[in-house]
Amino acid sequence: MIAFKRTDHILINVPPGELASAKHFYQDVLGLQPIESERPFVALWFRIADIELHITEEAGGTLSGRHPAFEVEDLAEAARFLKSKAISLSYSSKIPGRERLFFRDPFGNRFELIEYD
Questions:
Q1: pTM, 2 dp
Q2: pLDDT at residue 61, as a whole number
Q3: CATH value at residue 27
Q4: What Pfam families would the database entry show (predicted)?
Q5: DSSP state, 30?
Q6: Residues of the chain with pLDDT under 50
């Protein structure tokens, strides 16, 4: 079983070359607070209430990088649980202060699980 704590963030995509337009919309039009931090890739991060909204560029395709991310109590235990159910795990670049993994449901939807240091 996975001990979920809370929704951490949601990642959405914009077409390639549209990050500046997205920044204008989310920051200037909607008034979201930008989050400045070290990221492993080009992205915009904003605060929405007690979660984050992450925005990256994606050209589209069959398997999207869009995903919700959930904070969990014990990432290693969550990984063991998912593997016991024959669910494939993937890992991405490091973000300081957090460990994470990704998996997809049978329909191709991507999920991220995070444990903070």
A1: 0.79
A2: 78
A3: 3.10.180.10
A4: Glyoxalase (PF00903)
A5: S
A6: none
